[in-house]
Request: fold
Amino acid sequence: MGLTTGRRTVFAAVCAVAVASIYAAQPVLARIGEDLRVPDAGLGWIVAAGQLGYLAGLAALVPLGDLVDRRKLIAAHLLLTAVGAALAAAATETWLLLAGLVLAGLFAVVVQTTVAYAAALSTPEERGRTLGAVTSGVVIGILGARVAAGALAELWGWRSVYLALAVLLVVLAGLVLKTMPPDPRTDRATYGQVLTSLGGLFREPLFLSRGLIAFFLFASFGALWSGLSLPLAAAPWHLSTAQIGLFGLVGLAGALGAARAGRWADRGHASLVTGGALVLLAVSWLAVGQPSLWLLALGILVLDFAVQAVHVSNQHLLTAAHPNRTSSVIGGYMIFYSLGSALGAAATTTAFAAGGWIGSSILGAAFAGCAFAVWFTAECRARRRSAGSALPSSGGTNPACCR
Reply:
């Protein structure tokens, strides 16, 4: 069928606003902690709450996209995400804030239903381009939310951030119903069968390796963005929430630069892009950990470029391998993403409390190294299988990396 530029833009906007409901707390963590009297070591759980809700939604809600009209499903989930954001805005106790963030995270999995729907509507020749464009919306939401949240919090307090998100989510729900094509489903599979099929994905080598790469990739990403506001708000910089939010522009520039990864994937270079980007991810932490705002900005630029390139390449490979199960495969893959993000968010504040920003940087670099190790091992196994099928069983040698 193919997608028009207008529909790609709507898909990207849905992704941006929905995912922002999970990450908007990051630049204003210090403000929330002061208002609700949450200690520094526990602030990571405010971000992790949304990720844990997201995790539950990935397993329970995203597979519905393989059964029902995704246009209506997207609209409904946007409205329910708005309810969670409104609850967070009204929270006067920590437990109520966490409940609102869990609810918002649960239905923010509309992002993955949207990505899967966009992939399904695209022709095979443009799937990578579409995924690059729509996933750019996710990056705009994750990183752009920092800029907007910092500015809003500076003007009207942190609660205004969630109120604004609730309004935007309701508007987008109406826009989806008006602009997106109907999505009638002919598959007669039951919900239980879809969940069973989803479980079967975890035994497939491609899915498992790409999922583990995503786990460590987003643990590294979370280690940066969930902890960054803590050193920037402290000595020697003492930056305001609006100033901290501006670092999101740096990350946004880097991540949007990697949108071309989708076109590279369309040309058959997805695995090569993954390996190279993971090397960049690890190297970026050398700059991030330095006591210089300029080096920090450079490291953020490179880090977000690397994360986006790997993420788009992963999704391209998986949707190409499972074109008739895009919702289930994207939902299952993003379980790894959610677990990794939650780990990074919770662990980085603990590492910061114990070892300062250097401790958080070592943690982020270690996660990047683990992601590269998974990719390298998977490549070696793939080459070994390829060599084994091409050579007689009595002879031949393995590639050097697999010896």
Notes: Residues 202 and 208 are 6 Å apart (CA to CA).
